[in-house]
């Protein structure tokens, strides 16, 4: 006899939205979470009054009105606009690449001057068919931007030289010929006041949640506990890695509390030279315009992934996509299992895409 309608594996955003909607429709949900907290990668922890993004900076941004209205039911969003800074040696640049960046780099003032400078550098490089990432980047933005803002950062992220990376990784490098430091082009943007964890807690209200519980161990002891399973864990793990491992890129976070009120004056600062081992420093208080007397910063280090490491970014190259498709075929044959979220789809999703996907799964499930 099934005790629950849905066994939901994972309390991240996908699982939590699904649970909320299913519970609202009178269904009983049991949520299993392997970690010791809910929320998946959007989990925030309050340290000295500062909401710390434990799994990397999370800025909510979307152009999807339904998703924006949906998430606003569970939190009030502030007017944070992501405007990262890049530090290269002693030089400080605005991101994304825009007129402020170009002006700082070349002392120019107008869009025409910036376009001419880039065109001149691209022409001087004379690259017709880029053979690697370095050539691809230079053929798109010229030497200066590549050298100071792309090269070191990309090499740290991938752990190898841009000359040894394939050109396809960078399809385009957006250039903005306005003085606009807003990183995102989306219609709506902000940070939930009080962090993301309270959103997840509200979404999970009315369901039962078991923390520190791994699905694969649990289900052996409790087969048939629910009519259906919603699985938001890793796709290859669900099938016992029977076809091999899907590869990811990982990250290491080093968080430090500092006895000063302002460390870097901005939430996100990228370090673009190869010599600095971290790619970014996040100063969490600035996401919520914090005025606390102390601060918390997190250095982000790229990490080569190996089985067992925390999976952050899927490597959607040809080899991994072929493997993922074979797993997806197996998943399609699984009756009574709904696969959802970034791990089970082996895709990078922004938060708004995850919410949209969970709402779509609900519509399909309930024919509504
Ligand atoms: P998520 O990984 O959050 O949840 C899955 C849950 O399942 C986890 O809690 C896991 O522990 C659990 N689980 C897995 N296997 C299990 C098992 N066998 N048994 C029990 N539990 C299990 N997006 C955005 O819009 N703006 C941003 O600024 C960022 N920033 C960002 C930074 C970094 C570094 C990354 C990697 C990602 C982002 N994102 C983002 C993306 C965002 O993190 C992502 O969209 C959501 O967290 C995905 O939610 P899911 O529910 O799909 O997965």
- Report strand order across the widest sheet: 7-6-12-13-14-11-15
Tell me, what is the CATH class of the largest domain? Alpha Beta
Helix content: 25-40%
Provide the residue-averaged pLDDT: 96
Structural class: alpha/beta
The run of helices and strands is: EHEEEEHEEHHHHEHEHEHEEEEEHEHH
Low-confidence runs of at least 5 consecutive residues: none
Report the CATH superfamily of the largest domain.
Answer: NAD(P)-binding Rossmann-like Domain
Question: Any idea what the radius of gyration is?
Answer: 22 Å
Number of strands: 16
Count the domains.
2
Shape: globular
Indicate the CATH topology of the largest domain: Rossmann fold
The N- and C-terminal alpha carbons lie at a distance of: 27 Å
Number of helical runs? Answer: 12
Provide the β-strand percentage band: 15-25%
The set of bound ligands, ions and cofactors reads: dihydroflavine-adenine dinucleotide
Taking the sheet with the most strands, its summary is: 7 strands, mixed
Going by CATH, the architecture of the largest domain would be: 3-Layer(aba) Sandwich
